[in-house]
Design brief:
- By secondary structure, the chain is mainly beta.
- It folds into 3 domains: 135 residues, no CATH class; 35 residues, Irregular (Factor Xa Inhibitor); 91 residues, Immunoglobulins (Immunoglobulin-like, Sandwich), CATH 2.60.40.10.
- Helices cover 8% and strands 44% of the residues.
- It contains 3 helices and 15 strands.
- The chain has a 4-stranded antiparallel β-sheet with strand order 1-4-7-6, with no helix packed on it. Strands 2-3-8-5 form a 4-stranded antiparallel β-sheet, with no helix packed on it. A 4-stranded antiparallel β-sheet has the order 12-11-14-15, with no helix packed on it.
- Strand 9 and strand 10 form a beta hairpin.
- The chain is elongated and about 75 Å long.
- The two termini are 42 Å apart.
Length: 272
């Protein structure tokens, strides 16, 4: 998804620009800087580098620039808000580097809001239709007193994010909004892979925490506890153990707020 951004040109004549370009640049300077325009199609996110939702992720972005016959500089805003998949990330640090022709450097955070992971950068194009790319990496972390990515367990600050915390009175402040948020888990498929079986679990609601998957086969029943965050529209493949024989398998997914079997979060599948 393209990220909204702003660009402000700072014009300057190039020695190799030619007489016509010098006249155009002079007219631009006399008229003042142009209105802000967007770089909606220019600043694109690179692949995310994440360990788990409970650790500190780093998200990367790129800004291609250049293709001009003359040299000029501009500033732009790269990045996005820190929150992702409903998790209340906060910014930690950033780094900016450049590849190709021209230069870029960081100006600073776009705002004083710790939940704003955007960064202002200064970019200078090279003359002669040469191009380059400015890169930004922003590291984030989850607040130690937040249940984001920690539903079913304890936050580093000591408060809890499990179903018992309401009785003990030691829930983190965002427990209700994070762990008890509307989550709509679905078991989309149950398949056999060699001597094992697995289930594909998706979330059709808000981002939330998958806690476990329960299954039945004949008289046998078992639970697979797999705490994992599933964002809106995302899915995970969960190993369910060994293949117990041909027949019908019945499995359902549970979250911190979906403790028991519900018709919309279960699936029956015959495996052979």
């Amino acid at each position: 998804m393209a990220k909204r951004s702003r660009i402000h040109l700072v014009t300057g004549a190039s020695a190799a620009g030619g007489r016509l370009l010098a006249i155009l640049m002079l007219a631009s300077c006399l008229a003042g800087p142009p209105d802000s325009t967007s770089l909606d199609e220019a600043i694109e996110p690179l692949g995310d580098v994440e360990l788990t939702y409970a650790t500190d992720p780093t998200h990367q972005y790129s800004l291609p620039h250049g293709g001009s016959p003359f040299e000029y500089g501009f500033w732009a805003t790269m990045g996005e808000q820190c929150q992702r998949d409903g998790l209340p990330y906060r910014r930690v640090s950033y780094s900016v580097w450049h590849v190709g022709n021209g230069t870029c450097s960081a100006i600073g955070w776009a705002s004083s809001d710790p939940a704003d992971c955007r960064v202002n950068v200064w970019v200078r194009n090279s003359a002669g239709f040469l191009s380059g790319t400015c890169y930004l990496a922003v590291s984030k972390h989850l607040p130690e007193n937040s249940c984001g990515g920690r539903c079913g367990g304890q936050a580093p600050a000591g408060c809890w994010c499990d179903t018992l915390c309401t009785g003990y009175g030691d829930c983190c402040s965002d427990y209700q909004g994070t762990c008890m948020a509307w989550i709509d888990l679905r078991v989309d498929d149950i398949t056999r892979v060699g001597n094992n079986i697995q289930a594909t679990i998706s979330n059709q609601g808000l981002g939330g925490q998958l806690w476990s998957v329960s299954c039945k086969y004949g008289s046998a029943s078992w639970d697979v506890t797999t705490p994992a965050w599933i964002g809106t529209g995302q899915s995970l493949v969960i190993p369910l153990g060994f293949f117990r024989g041909p027949g019908e398998y019945f499995c359902w997914a549970k979250s911190a707020s979906q403790e028991f079997y519900q018709e919309n979060n279960s699936l029956k599948r015959s495996l052979f």
